[in-house]
Amino acid sequence: MTHNTPQSASDDLPAYIANIKHCKLLGIDAVENSEKSLVLVLPYDKNASSLVGNQALSGGAMLTLMDTVCGLVAAKAINHEGVAPTLNMIIDYIQPQTPGSSLLGTATTLRINDTMLYSRGLCYEAGNEESPIAFCSGTFVRIDSSASQVMPNQVESSDYLAFLAGLTKLPNDKTITALINRSPYAQLLGIEAKKNRDQILFILPACDRIIGNNTLPAVHGGCVAGFMEHAALLQAWSLNPAGTMPKAINSAIDFLRPARLVDSYASCEIMRRGRKVTNIRVTMWQTDTDKRIATASINISN
Fold first, then answer.
1. Are 282 and 256 within 8 A, CB to CB?
2. What are 155-168's pLDDT values in tens digits?
């Protein structure tokens, strides 16, 4: 959702929220709006329940509540100058709702930088904030006139600049190999890359230094996640090798089965490449492409 709120806390926030058609449909409204706090309410309505006969609001309705409150808090943090479209929203459901209960959502801004806003939200029932129904975190793209779009100055050697210039002359697979050779972390893990038909195949060779479970033995979960995220970064950088080194904004990893101590493989699929952000889906497997070890969705700043 794109958030662009009234210019001050004294403006009519309930009217603004009511103008958001989906919020109006669900009956979402502001119950507290001050300099330090914003609380929205999602009233119980059987038409928004998850199943017929189930007196609990659907996860979709709860997500709308939390996306709205997290986005509005993010927009308040930059004095409502511009808009804050949602980039990523993750919600953890902690416990079931009380049947027929309305829900409240509140949020705080964790961090602001030149390109992103980060919020954390809490969903709970009235009078029971200490026992939340769900936690969520949201990342929002900062689009406002006051945000500097210039990255901090970085001193780059003539050798490094020459290296970047040389990358533009290489085919995609050779570009990634050259980047791997310049990446200490890729060298630490032993990451390799090769062309496989029309895509790049990333390889994590089996070795003792990547073990996390000595009994199985199995690859450390952090190493699995690191391999997948680094593959996405290398893939993104190869799209514009002479540009600024891309950085991960967030990574969501789903671990599907243990990664045994055999060679692992990963492929990247670019879901969308925008002006500021590239979203990449990464799939990791070992001996069978149908038996995935993990999948990941990674947002990278261009």
1. no
2. 456 676 676 667 66
pLDDT, tens only, 135-188 = 999 999 887 655 544 444 444 566 766 766 676 666 667 888 888 888 889 999
Query: What gap in Å lies between CA 138 and CA 109, rounded to an integer?
Result: 9
Three-state SS annotation for 145-160: CCCCCCCCCCCCCHHH
**Which residues contact residue 138 at a Cβ distance below 8 angstroms, ignoring those fewer than 6 apart?**
66, 67, 70, 71, 74, 86, 88, 89, 90, 107, 118, 119, 120, 121
What single DSSP character describes residue 86?
A: E
pLDDT at 28: 93
Strands, E assignment, 37-126: 38-42, 86-93, 103-112, 116-125
Most distant pair of Cα atoms in the chain: their distance = 69
Burial (0-12, 13-18, 19+ Cβ within 10 Å), 39: middle
Is residue 71 a contact partner of residue 121, using CB atoms and an 8 Å limit? no
Sketch out the chain's domains with CATH numbers: 13-141 (3.10.129.10), 158-301 (3.10.129.10)
**23 φ, ψ (degrees, to nearest 5):** -65, -40
Strands 218-219 and 247-255: unpaired
Buried b / exposed e over 128-139, threshold 16 CB at 10 Å, is eeeebbbbbbbb
Residue 123's nearest CA partner among 175, 63, 165 is 63
Rounded-to-integer distance, Cα 77 and Cα 118, Å: 10
Q: Output DSSP code: residue 184.
A: H
**Which tokens belong to 51?**
């199943």
